Amino acid sequence: MTSLATNAELIDGSGGRSRLSALIGPWFLPVVAAIAIFAVMVALRPTVGTPLGISLVLGPLIPLVFAALAQMFIIAGGDIDLGIGSYIGLVNVVIAVVLPSDFALGLLFLVALLIAYAAMGVLIAVRRLPSIVVTLGMSFVWLGLALVILPTPGGAVPPEIAAFTRFSTPLIPGVLIILVVVTLVVALFVNRTRYGAVLRGMGSNAEGMRRAGWSVIGAKVTLYTLAGFFGILAGLFLSGQTGGGDARIGVSYVLLSIAAVIIGGGTFRGGEISVVGAVAGALVVGMLGALLQFLGVSSDFQVGVQGLLLVLVLVLRSVAGWIRAARRTR
What we know:
Pfam families: BPD_transp_2 (PF02653). This protein has helices spanning 2-12, 14-23, 28-44, 51-58, 62-76, 84-101, 103-127, 131-149, 159-165, 174-192, 194-204, 206-211, 216-242, 253-263, 275-294, 299-328.
């Protein structure tokens, strides 16, 4: 019977469609959108397609990619992080002010920030507090600490950090190497390891994972630690690119990181995330702003256009889901 069913699927093509649907996941649309936007930019300005042009266009988006990955891990657990922007700003200030004057103290400060992010996960899991409230409250803490250290923009990022964040090769732009390596490593961890499956399971079915013997608190700590780690990477690359410190430099990354994850196929239900989609979503959000500048669109309209893009993607995803559901009921 199994062979007959399989043969029937091959004959009518439904098996092929099922395999194709499994292969083309929620990441497909944002990847296509990112490629399309980049192609339009190259058509408008051919120099964008050169190694230097790729570095100039995609390089500034690396901090946003890391911020999106940080937000992705929080959303994977069914939470939302409204403090990631201020956290990135604090990391930037530490790297620009504390690290140059006392390397050991600056490094200790960054480790303490990572521990504080993990502690946030413990607090939310143990006390069952709304993540949106806790992270919003902590955003004021991060911003306040940053302003105490650096009330006005200034400082100087160590040249070694600036050189590291701007590295490149004669043939392949460094930004492409970073994007491919980071995406591959994170995707393999999330999708191909047992604990990656556990972390996603905690977001969608925490009670089931608890009954299977996994610790909800441990999973929350891991998710928030990973978010804090990628927040530090975002601050590191942002510091290397700007060369100085600014307590408010990362504020815009809150909504942009959320938009990137949602555009990339994530949902607020938890457990439904896509690493490739989140990276592509960050590139879409970032390159869209650059494309609008190429087209001469005023910066006053860029935020509105990005919001319309998010709504359009959500509508397309809803339509696609409706079509898949309709096919199943046939």
